[in-house]
Design brief:
The protein is mainly alpha-helical. It is built from four helices and two strands, in the order E-E-H-H-H-H. It has a two-stranded antiparallel sheet. Keywords: Coiled coil, Membrane, Mitochondrion, Transmembrane, Transmembrane helix.
Length: 215
C-alpha cells in the first residue's frame, strides 16, 4: 500500500507498506518498520477509512488530498509569518528612516535658523549704516539749505536797502523838483500880477488922457 506522509516542512512523501499475513510481518526483521508505519497519522487515517468501508485506493486518495490541503495551509501560514516578519522589519526600517529624517530636518532647521539669524544681523547692520549715511546726507542738505537761506536773506536785505536808498533819493529829487515848480509858479504868479497891475495902470492913464482931451 502507498500513502502520502505529512511532514512539518509541508512536503508529502510516499511510504510503501507490504500487505501480508501476520507471520510474514513478524519475521525477517521488518517488524520495527511496520510498527513505525502503523504509528504514522496517515496510516491510521487510511486504516480508519478502510474500516468505514472504503477501498484502499479511495482511502489513500482521500488521505493524499487531505495531506495536500494541510500542506497548502502550512505553506500559507509560513508565508503569512514571513510576511509579518517582513512587515515588522519594514516598519522598523521606516521608523529608522523617519527618525533619521526627523534628525536631518531638525539639523536643517537649526542651520536655516542660524543662517536667518546671521542674515538678519547683517541686514540690521546694513540698515543702521544706511540710516547713518541718510542722516549725514540730511544734515548736509539742511546745512546747505540754511546757508542758502542765509545768503538769500542777506541778498534780499541788501536789495531792500538799495531799493530803500533809491526810493529815498527819488523822493528827495521829487521834493526838490516840487519845490522848484512851486517857486516857478509863485514867480509866474507874481509876474502875472505885476503885468495885470501895469496893464490896469496903463489903461487908467490912457483913459484919463482921453477924458482930458475930450473935456
Amino acid at each position: 500500500m502507498f500513502y502520502t506522509s505529512l511532514s512539518p516542512s509541508g512536503i508529502g512523501g510516499v511510504v510503501h507498506v507490504d500487505e501480508g499475513d501476520d507471520d510474514s510481518d513478524s519475521s525477517g526483521g521488518g517488524g520495527d518498520d511496520d510498527q513505525s508505519d502503523d504509528d504514522a497519522p496517515e496510516y491510521r487515517l487510511v486504516r480508519s477509512l478502510e474500516a468505514e468501508g472504503l477501498s484502499s485506493k479511495q482511502a489513500e486518495a482521500i488521505t493524499a488530498a487531505m495531506t495536500e490541503v494541510l500542506n497548502d495551509s502550512l505553506e500559507n501560514v509560513s508565508v503569512s509569518v514571513v510576511s509579518k516578519l517582513e512587515m515588522q522589519k519594514g516598519e522598523m526600517t521606516q521608523e529608522s528612516n523617519v527618525s533619521k529624517l526627523k534628525s536631518e530636518v531638525h539639523s536643517c532647521q537649526e542651520l536655516h535658523y542660524s543662517l536667518l539669524q546671521h542674515e538678519n544681523e547683517e541686514l540690521q547692520k546694513d540698515i543702521e549704516k544706511i540710516r547713518s549715511e541718510l542722516r549725514h546726507e540730511i544734515d548736509k542738505v539742511n546745512a546747505g539749505q540754511r546757508l542758502d537761506l542765509n545768503l538769500e536773506r542777506g541778498r534780499i536785505r541788501d536789495e531792500l536797502s538799495n531799493q530803500h536808498a533809491g526810493t529815498a533819493s527819488l523822493t528827495n529829487k521829487l521834493d526838490r523838483e516840487i519845490h522848484e515848480l512851486k517857486a516857478h509858479l509863485e514867480a509866474a504868479k507874481y509876474d502875472l500880477i505885476k503885468y495885470c497891475i501895469s496893464t490896469l495902470v496903463s489903461l487908467s492913464a490912457v483913459g484919463l488922457a482921453v477924458v482930458r482931451v475930450v473935456i
